[in-house]
Amino acid sequence: MLQRKACRTSTLDLKAKSLGRQEQDIKERARVRIIAPALQELRVAGWLSVLAGALWSVQAAAIAWAVSGWIEGAPAIELAFRAAALFLGVALVRAGLDHRSGALLFQVADRIIARERAGLINREARARAETGSAGIASLIVQKLPLLQPWITRYHVAMMRVYVLPVLFLALAFSQSWVVGLTLLLAGPLIPIFMALVGMAAQEASSRQMDEIGTMNNMVMDRLSAMLDIRLLGAVDRAAADFSDRAESLRMKTMAVLRVAFLSSTVLELFSALGVAMVAVFVGFTLLGEITFGTWGAGLTLGQGLFLLLIAPEFFLPLRQLAAAWHDRAAGFAVVAELDALDAADRVSFVGTGQPSDRLEGPLRISTNGAAVALGGQRITVPDFSLSQGETIALTGPSGVGKTSVLAAIAGLVPLQTGEILICNRVLDGKTADAWRRRLAMMPQRPHFPDETLEDWLDTRQSGADPWPALRLADAQDIVKRLANGLESRLGETGGGVSGGEARRLLLARAIHTGAELILADEPTADLDADTAARVIASLKRLQREGRTIIVATHDPHMAAAMDRQLEVRR
């Protein structure tokens, strides 16, 4: 029994040490990544805020001096004018210091968040990780802004805690050693409980961040599969799953709020008790009931008022740090997620992705033992040779990697083994950008950004007339039917056009680029027989014009329309 207890204790100790090391690692990475680049501005803003807080002692002294002077019979008008002038003058200086400090902090926060957001977007656009697009979007839109309160509040609060409580404690001791001891004993209780609650806050924030990402991924998955869900009669099941996930997010959010409100209540209690004890001592001393606690002479009314006015300010930096402690926990959770995404396995496309001249030479593609590795799986590119004006259909079951083969031919994923020759050159980082100038891709899912149809069709901004391309794709009637014609904005999923019409517009877009090679991913998927036949006919017209076409398809009619069929296998 004793041995088992000792083993359990040892295991708990190891876990605690491991968690402690992880937290220290996160702190160090957060400091290097977020704080270090803006450390100078944060220090300047912090010292401005410290100076603004310290000036309250001057305002408190002005109030105490004026009230005690009135009691002692000094000229009320003259004394009030001087005290008010001093109080308002210092207040203006404090406001200016706070304003400048806040401006610096928000500028720093905006710059850091913009830098992280730009880095995420640029990297994920060029080298995608396995994290879903919804998870990336939630990190960019919902989680990165959580760095702002951490940057703007926590580090300034830390600097204020280092200086202001010590200053007000020294001022309190200068007037009464009892008040000084009261503040000295009550003050440390706040950081102790703040640290205890802070650990729970960081864990709760991390769980909430994970749930936000999970829910966003689920929403995107359900939206993309909405048609299938309706056809399968699974709408109620999908709604129930969404309800369960929303409830889970609500519970995790409430857990964060419970920790925040609990810590706030505890810290306010200690600060209120400390101020109340100072008020009791000052009150009974002025009444003559307490005759000790000062340095020789008794406590005057002016001294008592001064102590009452600075006592709350002694606790204020500690309370501000306690509030910012939750911002720190949320910031650490975001940094941990950023670090995890940095360390994730990702696949970058070949080349630089920058504009380039067209690759010279006759259009010819040949593959030799090529294979790519995506998502931990090896996908083999069939060996084939293709010349200008020829067509090939890539066939095979769902998930076998047909889309990945198209991406490899376009140089969008690097090869693990083998090689792909294009225009009698090896497809590599030196030739990929120029090669992509000669091809166009038709993705399986159409996407229409917030721009006019004319701009969307003209991807290379050539200014050429789009109508010849629309006629080749049998899409001219689609545009004519739209109320605004080429000036129409279809919306992200192509509102106002059917799935088949969206595919024909995609084909027109590919044609309008002037591409000699068209890579089409499931161009007839989910289309009725008549619409699919129109898409197939459009592709055949392109072949007669001398275009080279490679399609990935499940459609036997689509495959049969191509010159050759290649089965993609694992």
If you had to describe this structure to a student in words, what would you say it looks like?
- The protein is α/β, with parallel strands linked by helices.
- Helix content is 65%, strand content 10%.
- The radius of gyration is 35 Å and the shape is elongated.
- The protein starts with a helix and ends with a strand.
- The longest helix has 52 residues, at 235-286.
- Strand 7 (417-422) and strand 8 form a beta hairpin.
- Strands 3, 4, 5, 7 and 8 form a five-stranded antiparallel β-sheet that branches. A five-stranded parallel β-sheet has the order 9-10-11-6-12, sandwiched between helices. A two-stranded antiparallel ribbon has the order 1-2.
- The protein has helices at residues 2-35, 39-54, 56-72, 76-126, 133-143, 147-175, 177-186, 189-224, 226-231, 235-286, 301-343, 402-409, 432-436, 453-457, 467-472, 476-481, 499-512, 529-544, 556-561; strands spanning 127-129, 346-348, 364-374, 377-380, 385-387, 391-395, 417-422, 425-426, 439-442, 517-521, 548-552, 564-567.
- Mean pLDDT is 81; it is low at 5-16.
Task: Flag low-confidence runs.
Answer: 5-16
What's the helix count? 19
- Helix/strand-derived category reads alpha/beta
Distance between the termini: 54 Å
* Rg calc: 35 Å
Characterize the largest beta sheet: strand count, sense, and whether it forms a barrel. Answer: 5 strands, antiparallel
DSSP strand content: 5-15%
Percent range for helical residues? 55-70%
